[in-house]
């Protein structure tokens, strides 16, 4: 395809693999207005970068993101680094006229997220686009849930009940990886997985979280230092004898209010023993309810409140039909898809926004909205779950 978008990706960890898979696939599955050229992968450690480039399918490598951004032959910067570098890279890339896709959460602090949002607004005047990677919006069932809520199928939203549960650090000997360090990750379970359910809540309801009260806890306060950086897994060999302080939350519990008058509860934890990557969101409305469970990726639970007596209760919608979001491009009706597909859908939507000159969603401003809610939860938790309003963007 002519005029392909030339992608430069910064980072090569778990999300680097997920985004690479998306860039490799997106133009082969969807009919895109622009082609994709997986031009350059960028990272500091050559020993990890070169094999990642080969494995993931990138043409070239760069060791310094500044050099990457300065290149004239790059159109898009895809940021899949830990949160401490998002702001610096994104702001520089936008100033250089590159479209930016940035992993979630947008930044480690509200101040950084505000600066990124301002940079995105400035760049937008020249047709440059910026999007944040809240990938679960691109689960077909989640997008369909949103459409059903918007169509009034469950009436006014009364409750959102959302939980994102993992258990990968239950072992106190699990090393102090970057996700457990505040200066690198910003926060712990709250920002890493709580951010997803806060964003999903605002996305599926079309409403804003206006206030929160939060509790956070760090159950294991010291851990062995890793001798090599590791993402979600670390073997015995990657640990050293020395120990360091865990500076983020292990778990967060949040009460919230929605702009439409509904109430919400959120739970984000890495200590839900036995729960690997369990995300569930249920929306109860005045006319019915809808629920999504990530472990049942291709389904929605639906209760139409008007259905009485022997037919009441939740029924299962199979989100596998060509009329459902994203599905038509994949397999014949009834055939299921999974986790990696959401990154492909995300890449598809971003390419369309760039080519068609539309504002991508979630924009940096929307992601700043999530950051403001995360920040309010942390401040509330520091004040024994005091009620705090979440400022509007
Ligand atoms: C780690 O907890 C993590 O990889 C998150 O960072 C992702 O956003 C989520 O998709 C899976 O879990």
UniProtKB/TrEMBL annotation:
Keywords annotated in UniProt: Oxidoreductase
Keyword Translocase: no
InterPro entries: Gfo/Idh/MocA-like_OxRdtase_N, Gfo/Idh/MocA_oxidrdct_glycsds, GFO_IDH_MocA-like_dom, NAD(P)-bd_dom_sf
Highest rank taxon of the organism: Bacteria
Domain Gfo/Idh/MocA-like oxidoreductase N-terminal: 5-123
Domain GFO/IDH/MocA-like oxidoreductase: 143-290
Protein's UniProt name: Gfo/Idh/MocA family oxidoreductase
